[in-house]
Amino acid sequence: MTATFESQRTALADVVAIPVTPFAEDGRVDQDAHRALLRRLLDGGVTTLTPNGNTGEFYTLTPEERRLVTELTVDEVGDRAAILVGVGHDVPSAVASARHARELGARMVMVHQPVHPYVSQSGWVDYHRAIAEAVPELGVVPYIRNAQLTGARLAELGAACPNVIGVKYAVPDAARFAAFARDAGGNRFVWVAGLAEPYAPSYFSAGATGFTSGLVNVAPSVSLNMIEALRAGDYPAAMKVWEQIRRFEELRAANGSANNVTVVKEALASLGLCRRDVRPPSRELPEGERAEVAEIAAGWSL
I need a labelling partner for 19 at 20 to 30 A (CA). Which of 115, 197, 214, 221 fits? Predict the structure, then answer.
């Protein structure tokens, strides 16, 4: 397993960028802006991207739009970065998306958390196993937001599916993460801190080697500075970056992360990089709150 998926595992131990999906004035995906934003990430040094992630407004996109986003990303990125395509919804839809990603040449998929009011732990394993077994050639990365899930269940999935190679762990509890990772099998998986820069230092101390980022859309160098510090074990330097991005991330996290994507797009709009439009149930920032986001973005070294 390790030899087969070595390059994919390496790609996960990095800043895993979640690109936004820009919309045009008519509401459709702005393909030109999308490509330009991807080039900006690549030119900024980002080497792992997740099209159709939550910062990309995955759940507001139609099936056709999700396919388009994947196609645009694969075409624009080429061999400049690893691509981890977000898939999800019902099992047949997730499998179809994963196979589409495979056909385009992507080598990994991230499986969004099951959207269902009743998720059993055994059912969680069954859901991910069905997807992973449908694309054995691809590295598969479950996105875990369920605090009730135990590490033993992930170990069960990993034993059945050698192509489950990493985990995006997004439960906001560093102690729980440390226990979960060890119960699941430790180095059997690559651990990605799924709550981005604010949680990266604490999760790295417990075994994560990568983290996801939406902020990276705005300031790639800031995110890369943090991972370089973490890799060096220089936690004081990492916390300096943490202090630098603290207010931006607080704005994103406020009110149950209601403005998670909104704040990122507002920052990009303030820099003239894309429109601020987001789709319901997200909403644009009120006029009075836009200036603070613009000031933060302007203050970073971009």
Answer: 115
